[in-house]
Amino acid sequence: MGTCNHPQQHQNKSSKQPRRLTKMDTASKDNPTKRRLIPHLFRQFNKSTSTEKIVAKIMELNNKAVTLYCEGDFSSASSLFQEAASLRQESDPWPSQELERNEPPPSSYIYQRMDFDEGMVLYQDTEPVETGDHPKSVQAKILFNAGQARRKLDDLCGASGYYERALRTFLLTDLNERTPVAMITVHKVIVPILHNIGQVYYRKGNLKRAIVAYKIALQHCKSLLGEEDFSVGITLNCLGVLYYHLSVEQSQEAIQCFLEAVKIQQRVLGKNSKEEATTLNNLGRVHVQREEFDKALRFYELALEIRRECLGKDSIDYAATAFNAGQSLHQKGDCDRAIELYQEFLRVALVKFSKNHRDVAVVLSGIAQIHQERKEYDKALELYEESLEVGRGALGEYHSEVAMLLNRIGNFHFERENFEQALTVYKQGLKIEKRVLEKTHPNIIVTLSNIGEIYRQRGDFDLAIKLYSHALSLQRKRFGESSAEVANTLNVIGLIYDQKGDSNMASKKLQAALLLRRSILGDEHLDVSATLTHLGTIFYRKNMISTAMQLFDESLRIRRAKLGEDHRDVSFTLYNLGLCHQLQGSYKEAISCYSETLRVEKLVLGADHRDVSMTMYKLGEAHKADGDMDKALIHFKNALAIERSTIGREDPATVARTLNEIGNIYLARGDVVPMMEAFNEAARIFQEAGLSAQSVTVSGQLYAFGISVPAAAPAA
């Protein structure tokens, strides 16, 4: 195709230096790459001696510019390419069109993201014009070359304009999401044109247009070069990367593209090539996106082995895959191995880059997160602060990834319940995000929600509602009224109103969330079950027991179907149903619900958990109300034993309450001595808790009864 450089790849977590790949059109006797057509097709370009001179001049200017381009004199090359384009227009005018002048996106995030991508080939070559080239090829080549020179001068918008004009030589319409991808031309120059247009759209964040460009490029690669040509594999890899970034919903398309690309790479280059490793690494990334960490790790390990053999352990590409594999190991809970691979990345990166590099900051933050999970808080905070310092040194203060690092530190303080420190850091991150990101960017929404949650935890419910409502308005603008994000935030706002004591507003917001969740997720989703449960508790407190039971019943059905019989959430819903049955006087149904709750809690939480004692206490109440004092006494005593060992000093009033119930059981049975012991101890504990001895409640009137509390009563 051209005479100097090779396609450049943008790497995932890797060097900014271009990697070398085989030319997409490699010249051979059987497959010539110069676009020549039958000479008579060029006759319209030779109508006069004057025209012949212009043609010769165009070729001279273009090819001289190509030489200057290869020598690195891009400014002079650009001037000559533009002069050639001007002469070509005079000899056979085409409509003059303004160069596209798209402004870069409001965030530098799109540009930084390029560091993470692998195998996104960028054609660097220019195209020589030769005698016999079709007029359309001449026109497209000159414009393409002018775009190449503008790109080398970092004029992305100017390059984009020339690429677009080159493409319009062959297409009668602008490239957009509705452009038919099956439009085929015989001019091979369209392949680098489409690839570089796709690359420009990608850098601008217009992924859908980029996908259209690469789809048309794929059709041309297959049609002009063959189904098994290496260019087909390269283009499939590019499409896979775009589908990966577009959304998780497109992840299956990404996987299909990557798998097809690997097959072609193996057939053309043999197994275990560095190009195959690139695509395997991309497959790992898309499986991480799908939270399929076992599959991701399998692909990362294959890529890591190939890169170790092909590139060596000091290669930044090897280090990049080590980091990616470390992330998957982290997700799987293998933190020791994850740290080893993170450190392996740092070993290479600190040599290849300066310390103040964005990827170094990201990895330091990842190691900090592991220490945080291990409760090694001092080490975690030290690493978080180091990652922030490195990030600021690499990217400056106002960068979206600096805001991300601040939010991680905010999350750290939130977990430690250092709400003031968390609030300060979140606000710093929000200030940056508002400056560098679009107004409805998801990161801004998350930070607003984090700040709202701090106010909620502090009991500042009005401020919490204000922040969450702001987040909700941004979600509606970005995702639409009927989105899962809107439903989630409505659900949270409903819960805050409930905490605030405004049950009417709480039920209104929760019912709106329920309606959205049913329409978006379906009636059988666990999020629907959660909202049903929240609504049920509100109606229970309003003494609307029948309505509450309907909601709990539906929630229980969903949770059993999705989670099985032995899940904690199932036992929680059963407990709520037990409360409803008990309040309605259906004690046997209540006992059944509480008994199943107790079975699951012992299985999941252990026999001595605080929640187990609460369920035992409710079983005691239900058996007592049902007239079975023996079983009631057993459950109250079992509850008391757990309470003494778990919350005796933290919540003595609960221990006293259970002793009070035990005393009443003995009273009903006429067992005076154990009755007196239980009542006396309950009264003493109530007094020690700052309550009155009169807090003891005596059920029944067996005989006149007074309680004395000796000063030297034994400790609980």
Q: With helices defined by DSSP (H or I, 4 residues minimum), what is the helix count?
A: 29
Q: Within the largest sheet, what's the order of strands?
A: 1-2
Q: Report, as a whole number of angstroms, the end-to-end distance.
A: 90 Å
The biggest beta sheet reads: 2 strands, antiparallel
Our Rg estimate from Cα atoms comes to 35 Å
3D structure, described in words:
The protein has helices spanning 49-70, 74-91, 109-113, 135-152, 156-168, 190-204, 207-225, 230-246, 251-269, 274-289, 293-311, 316-332, 335-352, 358-373, 377-395, 400-415, 419-436, 442-458, 461-479, 484-500, 503-521, 526-541, 545-563, 568-583, 587-605, 610-625, 629-646, 652-669, 672-688, and strands spanning 8-12, 116-122. With 716 residues, the protein is an all-alpha fold. Strands 1-2 form a two-stranded antiparallel ribbon. Helix 9 (251-269) runs antiparallel to helix 10 (274-289), helix 15 (377-395) packs antiparallel against helix 16 and helix 16 packs antiparallel against helix 17. The model is unreliable at 1-48, 92-117 and 701-716 (pLDDT under 50).
Q: Gist?
A:
The chain is 69% helix and 2% strand. With 716 residues, the chain is an all-alpha fold.
Comma- or semicolon-separated keywords:
about 70% helix, two-stranded antiparallel ribbon, disordered C terminus, single chain, disordered N terminus, about 0% strand, mainly alpha, 29 helices, about 725 residues, elongated
Topology:
Elements lengths: L7 E5 L36 H22 L3 H18 L17 H5 L2 E7 L12 H18 L3 H13 L21 H15 L2 H19 L4 H17 L4 H19 L4 H16 L3 H19 L4 H17 L2 H18 L5 H16 L3 H19 L4 H16 L3 H18 L5 H17 L2 H19 L4 H17 L2 H19 L4 H16 L3 H19 L4 H16 L3 H19 L4 H16 L3 H18 L5 H18 L2 H17 L28
Antiparallel strand pairs: 1-2
Helix pairs in contact: 1-2, 2-4, 4-5, 5-6, 6-7, 7-8, 8-9, 8-10, 9-10, 10-11, 10-12, 11-12, 12-13, 13-14, 14-15, 14-16, 15-16, 16-17, 16-18, 17-18, 18-19, 19-20, 20-21, 21-22, 22-23, 23-24, 24-25, 25-26, 26-27, 27-28, 28-29
